[in-house]
Amino acid sequence: MNNIVAAKKESVINYMKDIFNDVGNVTIFALRFFKEVVKPPYEMKEFIKQCYVIGYKSLPLVTITGFIMGLVLTLQSRPTLAKFGAESWLPSMVALSLIREIAPVITALICAGKVSSGIGAELGSMKVTEQIDAMEVSAINPYKYLVVTRILATTLMIPLLVIYADGIGILGGYVGINIHSDVNFHRYLAQVLESITFLDIFPATIKTFFFGFFIGMIGCYKGFNAANGTESVGKAANSAVVTASLTIFIIDMLAVQLTDLFF
């Protein structure tokens, strides 16, 4: 019995050690990013390519998701508001819910699944096939070429995708309202704009930059540090998705607390 307890304690200690080691390694990895990002040469061609891959190629998925978010939120909220005769508040409620919380978090989670896993698998396969080592031998800085460009691209593209999802979600809300009633689009849009203030948009937009940064950082870290063997590529991609998704929820929780504190 004592041996079983001792073994469990040892496994817990080793697990905690692994977590702290990962946190330390990610911190060093991130500090290197801030060092490399300001040093020339700047890989603009690769950066633009990654913006296209991460941003433009994610538009169809974000469009469908954003429209469904607005449509479903409207349809689910309408019966409750109708009980109190407050259906006129529906456009304002949908817009505020989407902009403040739902669109940023859901879009970031989608990008964590699509982008972070893709980066982790891509860099992991390059590590396993020794392409990263070959770049170092060729006097190319693989960190600057592969990591910096991808993190910058996710940091820039995720906020733009969230803003796009906000607009598509509001459009979906308009369609949802008109399923049961007939509302003029100009009137609907006027109600939406009247309810939105700068303090609704600013904190929600700022946190999306952190979402994008950590989505790129975690994907690059997991792929760049993948172990040898093809099995590690799948593990890197899976671990990138799980870790990035958990990080998004933690950042969102902190952002909400800071917003309530300062705004």
TrEMBL record:
A matching Pfam family: MlaE
Q: GO molecular function terms here?
A: phospholipid transporter activity
Report if keyword Ribonucleoprotein is assigned.
Answer: no
Domain of life per record = Bacteria
- What residue ranges are annotated as transmembrane? 54-75, 151-177, 198-224, 236-256
- List the protein's name: Phospholipid/cholesterol/gamma-HCH transport system permease protein
| Entry keyword annotation includes Cell membrane | no
Could you state one GO cellular component term attached to this entry? ATP-binding cassette (ABC) transporter complex
* The species this protein was found in: Flavobacterium limicola
Membrane topology reported for the UniProt record: Multi-pass membrane protein
Q: What does the similarity note say?
A: Belongs to the MlaE permease family.
**Cellular compartments annotated:** Membrane
Entry keywords, A to Z: Membrane, Transmembrane, Transmembrane helix, Transport
